[in-house]
Specification:
The complex is a heterotrimer.
Chain A: E1 5-11, H1 17-23, H2 28-35, E2 36-40, H3 49-53, E3 60-66, E4 69-71, H4 72-84, E5 85-91, H5 92-97, H6 109-119, E6 134-137, E7 140-143, E8 147-152, E9 162-164, H7 171-182, E10 191-192, H8 248-251, H9 269-280, H10 286-296, H11 300-304
Parallel strand pairs in A: 1-2, 1-3, 3-5, 5-9, 9-10
Antiparallel strand pairs in A: 4-8, 6-7
Chain B: E1 2-6, E2 17-22, E3 28-34, H1 41-44, H2 53-58, H3 65-79, H4 86-112, H5 114-117, H6 129-136, H7 138-159, E4 168-169, E5 172-173, H8 179-208, H9 211-218, E6 227-232, E7 244-248, E8 254-258, E9 267-270, E10 279-282, E11 299-300, H10 303-308, H11 316-329, H12 340-359, E12 379-386, E13 389-397, E14 403-409, H13 411-414, H14 416-430, H15 439-450, H16 456-459, E15 470-474, E16 480-485
Parallel strand pairs in B: 6-11
Antiparallel strand pairs in B: 1-2, 2-3, 4-5, 6-7, 7-8, 9-10, 12-13, 13-14, 15-16
Helix pairs in contact in B: 4-7, 4-12, 6-7, 7-8, 8-12, 11-12, 14-15
Chain C: E1 10-15, H1 19-28, E2 37-42, H2 50-58, E3 63-68, H3 79-97, E4 104-108, H4 114-131, H5 146-159
Helix pairs in contact in C: 1-4
The chains are: A alpha/beta, B alpha+beta, C alpha/beta.
Chain lengths: 328, 488, 165
């Protein structure tokens, strides 16, 4: 009887959706349990960090690490699990490209703390208390990790062996990846385990030529259920987003929001969105182009870098000289 | 003093660690549940588009994204001053009931349940959903897997994706359901009712039928007399989707009943330097520290609190079970934290019954699933009961629908003070002089927070309770033309 | 860096048919222009992907120049219009990133306009010099606090009591 491998699943700055997606493989979780001993999985298993610290290096066969890196504790865990694991997978959009926590890169620690612990009137904080990395209480010292100014992706902290994209990756893709790992049928190290085309290929809607004279907001129209959403003026990120989900959002009438990240070999998702949308604007007049862009896309950071801000070339927004984030 | 560290706390959503300080005599001097995570939604959502908020706030929590999606969508209705047509509201509530049933199942079987099915000091390797499946066998485990599978299948069918739906819009939803889909929803709903009844039976047999567990539930180490918050309909029955917020004291007296948009008058937040998560309390009573009683502003927003804050359940089977629980535990309100697991199963039953009620409503397959807003967006509050507590989203935007300010009070945040008190009391009750401290004992202390089904990702999205006082009006070039502020 | 001695590094993407020939012309006619632009020849301004601009800024450039044929005169007929639209979309976004407008410029120039292009280049260099270094990677540094914070976590873990299974 062959020995079971060791599997770890960990979450950093994340939401728990990747955990639920893993449970979405349903009864196949038993196949996973047959192949592996789960040595860390805080959502479901009671193993503690200390047991991981005591393990020998490279004794964990596979670590599925989801979540972005936003505190020193999360970076500590990334390094710890990198040392202890043979194969480290950046699982899900947060670990891969920062995802929604990565939108924190429009601001910084000072602004977040100021909003959270001071600015709202219902905050009853007359002494201006803020969370501290060290607090002396009567009984001893309590520690909190350092909250970074900038959210990082997993590969900006440690070497990553593979990426599994999606927010969260769909259960079918998760299972495909687990099978590929078990059967050792993986692409080159450092690759994304995923399709090499865009969501448009999965989308059931009919497509023809796109000539946009106005971008519409989703609450401005009720779109035709059969025609390409971009053609109807909605900003659908499917054109720049890696396939794999089956175009689930356009299927229920909502434009793709780009959660699977960029297609193969693309190093900046937002740049692809910018260039794709620019290509379909039907005007050669600079002033009219300006108007179409200004009116139709009031939030370019949120629209183009919704999931990928931390992984884009610029990684974050600059703050002004007095430390304030750029106004919209 | 010596320090025991439970790091991380497990079988909940989110990050946390418990520090227990021991005196030289081996007694517990104090215990702290610290939340070391924070992401800053209320800050980085400034500048985002209103219609993106249901999708962005989905990612506050991947276990209950449907709750955020719904609260956010309702906030958009209010923001755009648009009233969705009846089909849209019923579809949303149907979706929400299906989600509730699925989420409560996940909690009972994967998160909190293993302590009861396997035992609080069972070996770590067995004390989890996989251990449960092995122990109860595939006949029973198959039912659990089917329930979760069905639930996520329907969530995907209706809302787009099994995790993080992309469906809600101001004035309605992005798509309705066909008759074929409705039939499947109804059929699976009836299966779900049977599953809920089965789960309650399981609870009866494994928990209520086991004197050790009953003693644990009744143990004073797990009792807290705090205020209870929940959402109720016009009959004071529990409603997850819509209604008024009602707060009832540990003595059973009603403290407040208010429209969700008035939340700022009733809830305020306290800050401690040792946790990123703040501590909401009832404003009119005030923050008196981590203490119980009618004079302390600490309150709970959990399934048990919801039942304590209501006069009954809106569906027959759940109502019968509601009556049985209160009869067994000595009347309302029940202050035994571990009874929350029972309350959660009663809510599971209600959710499944309501699911079938809505699935058989004649308007549910209607064509009018959305109306377009006609007014300029300004400000809006949306509230629902998340499985883990009352959830409020409050948005302010400019006239283009770009967020200028956002306030969120999220389910588990409501419970932060109570969770800390529960953990400390459990630690003091279970660790006394001469007791050998082993891992299983620490896990029993962890049961004190698991009853709350905490979601720390939810809790730390954000911050403070009340809203800002600043609305910034811009012209189409983004230049500020007016700032309105109050209470600054 | 002392701003008095700061010399901007600007990356320039110049199209083969018009703007690259224009700077060639400036060279043969000995029209002086400042040496701060590192020129990269592309076949058409329509080749310039916003990614190039972002990557240049991320890697330490203080500015990026894109130069192409005048609208209506593109060697490939219409692609400079694509460049124009991409540029406008990019500037709309870069403003929110906090990159000053003068750092990224789209300049039309025909092959005969050596003098005009040289003047435009000098103008851009002056503006970027006045803005100072961009130094983009500094924007996401944590000011050296990370290592100590991570070390503290290891120490905190080691300090806690051992509890047997």
């Amino acid at each position: 009887m062959s020995e079971k491998g060791k599997l770890a699943l960990y979450w950093a700055a994340s939401c728990g959706g990747c955990e639920i997606a893993v449970l979405g493989i349903n009864e196949k979780i038993l196949d996973v349990a047959n192949a592996f001993d789960i040595v860390l999985w805080p959502v479901a298993v009671d193993a503690k960090v200390r047991s991981i610290e005591k393990m020998a290096d490279k004794s964990i066969d596979l670590c599925l690490f989801n979540g972005a890196i936003r505190t020193s504790e999360q970076e500590y865990m990334a390094r710890l699990l990198r040392h202890k694991s043979k194969v480290l997978v950046a699982f899900g959009s947060c670990a891969h490209e920062g995802c929604i926590p990565g939108l924190g890169n429009v601001t910084n620690r000072e602004e977040i703390f100021q909003t959270a612990y001071h600015d709202t009137p219902s905050t009853d904080n007359p002494d201006g208390v803020r969370p501290q990395t060290e607090t002396e209480v009567e009984e001893g010292t309590l520690y909190l990790p350092l909250f970074y100014n900038t959210v990082k992706t997993l590969d900006q902290c440690v070497d990553v062996d593979y990426y599994l994209p999606g927010c969260p990756p769909e259960p079918e893709r998760i299972w495909d990846a687990i099978v590929a790992i078990l059967e050792n049928k993986l692409p080159a190290p450092g690759s994304v385990i995923g399709a090499e085309t865009t969501v448009c290929d999965d989308c059931p809607r009919t497509r023809s030529e796109k000539k946009i004279t106005e971008f519409k907001r989703t609450w401005e129209i009720i779109p035709d259920p059969d025609i390409c959403l971009l053609e109807q003026g909605l900003v659908c990120c499917g054109i720049a987003t890696r396939a794999g989900c089956g175009a689930l959002c356009p299927t229920v009438g909502s434009p793709c929001i780009g959660c699977y990240g960029p297609n193969v070999d693309v190093i900046d998702f937002g740049a692809r969105m910018m260039t794709a949308l620019a290509s379909v604007i039907d005007s050669d007049d600079p002033e009219e182009i300006d108007r179409i862009i200004e009116e139709g896309i009031p939030d370019p950071i949120g629209t183009f870098y919704r999931f990928s801000l931390a992984h884009g070339q610029l990684r974050r927004c600059a703050l002004s000289g007095n430390g304030k984030s750029v106004e919209a | 003093m010596k320090r025991i560290s439970i790091d991380p706390i497990t079988r909940l959503e989110g990050h946390g660690k418990i520090d227990i300080f021991l005196t030289d005599e081996g007694e517990v001097a104090n215990a702290y549940l610290q939340v070391p995570e924070l992401r800053g939604f209320e800050r980085f959502c400034v500048g985002r588009l209103a219609e993106d908020m249901p999708n962005i706030t989905d990612r506050i929590c991947g276990v209950c994204p449907e709750a955020h999606h719904m609260a956010s969508t309702k906030a958009l209705d209010a923001l755009f001053h648009v009233d969705p047509p009846p089909t849209a509201k019923k579809l949303r509530e149907l979706f929400y009931s299906i989600f509730y049933a699925t989420d409560h199942t996940t909690h009972f079987y994967a998160l909190g349940g293993p302590d009861f099915v396997m035992g609080p000091d069972a070996p770590v390797a067995e004390r989890n959903i996989l251990g449960i499946i092995k122990k109860v066998g595939m006949d029973i485990a198959g039912k659990v897997l089917k329930m979760r599978h069905d639930g996520h299948h329907l969530i995907k069918m209706i809302g787009g994706r099994p995790v993080h739906p992309n469906w809600g819009l101001p004035g309605g939803v992005s798509r309705g359901i066909t008759e074929e889909q409705r039939e499947e929803i109804e059929k699976l709903g009836k299966d779900a009712i049977e599953f809920a009844k089965f789960s309650i039976q399981l609870f009866n047999d494994i928990v209520l039928g086991n004197t050790t567990y009953v003693e644990l539930i009744m143990n004073d180490a797990f009792v807290h007399r705090t205020y209870n918050m929940g959402t109720v309909d016009e009959n004071n029955h529990v409603n997850f989707y819509d209604g008024k917020i009602r707060v009832v004291g540990p003595d059973g007296k009603e403290h407040a009943k208010y429209d969700p948009k008035d939340y700022q008058d009733y809830v305020a937040e306290h800050v401690e330097p040792w946790s990123y998560l703040k501590f909401p309390f009832l404003k009119k009573i005030g923050w008196k520290g981590f203490v119980d009683g009618e004079d302390s502003g600490v309150y709970k927003a959990t399934p048990l609190s919801r039942l304590n804050a209501a006069d009954g359940m809106a569906t027959p089977l759940a109502q019968a079970e509601f009556e049985r629980m209160y009869e067994t535990l000595g009347g309302s309100p029940v202050n035994h934290t571990l009874a929350t697991h029972w309350a959660r199963l009663i809510e599971l039953l209600y959710a499944t019954e309501h699911w079938v009620e809505l699935a058989t409503d004649p308007e549910i397959t209607g064509e009018e699933y959305r109306v377009l807003p006609t007014e300029t967006p300004t400000e809006g509050v949306g509230e629902v009961e998340a499985p883990r507590g009352t959830l409020t989203h409050h948005y302010w935007t400019d006239e283009r629908g770009v967020l200028t300010k956002i306030n969120l009070i999220v389910g588990t945040t409501n419970n932060n003070a109570a969770i800390n008190m529960s953990v400390k009391k459990a630690a003091q009750g279970l660790i006394t002089k001469g007791v050998e401290i082993k891992e299983g004992l620490l896990n029993t202390i962890e049961m004190a927070y698991r009853a709350y089904d905490p979601c720390m990702a939810c809790a730390t999205h954000t911050l403070p309770g009340q809203m800002p006082l600043e609305v910034v009006i811009r012209d189409k070039d983004g230049e500020v033309i007016e700032r309105l502020s109050q209470n600054l | 860096m002392n701003t008095e001695t700061f010399e901007p590094k600007i990356v320039g993407f110049l199209c083969n048919w018009c703007s690259y020939r224009a700077v060639d012309l400036a060279g043969t006619a000995r029209i002086k222009y400042e040496p701060n632009v590192r020129i990269i020849r592309v076949m058409c301004s329509g080749r310039v992907d916003p990614t190039f601009v972002l990557k240049a800024l991320a890697m330490g450039a203080d500015g990026v120049l894109i130069a192409g044929c005048h609208p209506g005169e593109c060697h490939y007929l219409e692609q400079n219009y694509k460049a124009m639209r991409r540029f406008q979309m990019l500037m709309h976004t870069l403003r929110r990133f906090g990159v000053e407008e003068d750092r990224v410029r789209l300049q039309w120039a025909s092959a005969a306009e050596g003098v005009q292009l040289a003047a435009a280049i000098n103008d851009m260099i002056d503006k970027v010099r006045a803005l100072g270094p961009l130094n983009w990677p500094e924007k996401y540094s944590e000011n050296g606090k990370v290592e100590a914070a991570i070390q503290r976590i290891a120490e905190e873990h080691a300090e806690a009591m051992e509890v047997p299974a």
